[in-house]
Amino acid sequence: MFAQVLRKLERELSIPQPQILSIAAGFQAHLELGLNRQESSLRMFPSYLQAPNGYEAGTFIALDFGGSNVRAAVIQLKGEGDFQELSRLSFPLSATDSRRDLRTSAVTAEELFDCLAEIILEVLQNSSVNPSLISGTSGPLPLGFAFSFPYCQQKLEEGVLLNWDKEVKTSGVVGKDVGQLLSAALVRQGLGIVVRPVAIINDTVANFLTAAYKDPNVDIATIIGTGHNTSYLEQKAPGFAAPVIINTESGNFSAAPQTFYDQMLDLQSANPGEQRFEKMLSGKYLGELFRQIVLDLFQQGLLVRTLNSLPAHWNRPYTVSGKDLAELLAGKAEVDNRSLPMSDDELFALQRIAHLLIKRSARLVAASLIGIVRHLDPHLSNPHTVAVDGSLYEGMPGYSQELIVALSEGLEGNAFQISVKLSAGGSLTGAAIAAALASFN
Ligand code: BGC
Asked: What is the DSSP letter of 404?
């Protein structure tokens, strides 16, 4: 029976090579429509930043607000692609020790941004920065803010949040300029003359800057973590005389074929209809897709042998995480630190389902990257380097290999033109580089 169930799922979740090509073509079409300000699921936000030259230098504050953590650092850029973190702090957005879960609708914008200003104060106090810099007597320290949500901006130091995603729901931020919210919180914290936010950037743009600071060949940067998105260097963006990094907001791509489970997950999410691509493939959602599939098979009586009942907490959404899937694939019959009483074939079936989801995720990302490469270079005559960051890519067994296989299938004989390199933890450094670019322009 398992074999039959798995075959059906395999059919639903597989993306054969011709489909990689058609998704890539759809992605390229949406990209080009969005770039020309026509209707598209890709928002194609200009970042107002060019690629760095690698010689940017100085001391900057970097703040990174993602879907799972807040991080702050004082970073000294040394030029020639070199940098040093003078201090760094991070904390998870969800409740641990005294800090509350900052993602819920019970938390206000002021409370959230006060926490961000506090972490900036702490990181400054912990660093060995020259006291005249901290006191503000030699002018405020420029701050770059990597903000990993869809926002629009007319200038580098502003970012008006369009909508939350990754299940964050903090009140009073949507429609507001996060640059102004941060500046106001810094004033409340007594840091008004010490720190000046000069650049708001998306985390994929930050990843781009960090990777390109060291390697001028990087022309695409993607995040495959809690969320998913890709930026690239556009040579001919309408309205820009020079090349500009564009944040595609690819997580919102709407033309990939969905299964019943994808549709259910979307309907039950905090933002139905939005971020459909991201919900099919990123770390925030893979565990939930897995939970919904397993629950459905179980309720249909298709997954019963020794596994007589699923643990009660499986009825609650988002109780299975991407990390659980990684452990399952590594052979642990455990979810949420609780072991599952399973037979060997049940464990095999669950592993197979997890593997199908992960493989599909990598193939979807590969298709979107191919769409970008084809836009940049239709005949694939030049080499391209994609910088990748994110917990799913780094931590999920087999993910990076699946991505490479899918890229080579999708690029057919030209796969040698694309190289993929890990650029781990680039958000903070990228925020510092953005602050440097803003200060020197
Ligand atoms: C956000 C993007 C972000 C990506 C990766 C998505 O949910 O919309 O802005 O770049 O996650 O963090």
From this structure: H
pTM for this model (two decimals) = 0.93
DSSP class of 66: -
Report pLDDT digits (tens) over 137-186. Answer: 567 999 999 999 999 999 999 999 999 988 899 999 999 999 999 999 99
Q: Which tens digit of pLDDT belongs to each residue from 43-82?
A: 999 999 999 999 999 999 999 998 788 999 999 999 989 9
- pLDDT for position 109: 97
Tell me if 298 sits within 8 A of 269, measured CB to CB.
no
Residue 209 CB neighbour total at 10 angstroms: 34
Which residue has the CA at smallest separation from atom 11 of ligand 1?
227
Q: What letter represents residue 399's amino acid? A: Y
Residue 58 region, left (φ>0) first, then alpha (ψ -120 to 50), else beta?
left
Evaluated on CA atoms 119, 122, 127, 129, the torsion sign reads positive
Number of Cβ atoms within 10 Å of the Cβ of 216: 14
Distance from residue 69's CA to the centre of ligand 1 (Å)? 13
Q: In ligand 1, which atom is closest to the CA atom of 165? A: 7
Element (H, E) at 166: none
Give the residue, by CA position, lying nearest to ligand 1 atom 9. Answer: 149
**165 in ligand 1 pocket by Cβ < 6 Å?**
yes
DSSP state of 177: B
> What is the share, in percent, of the chain residues with pLDDT greater than 90?
76
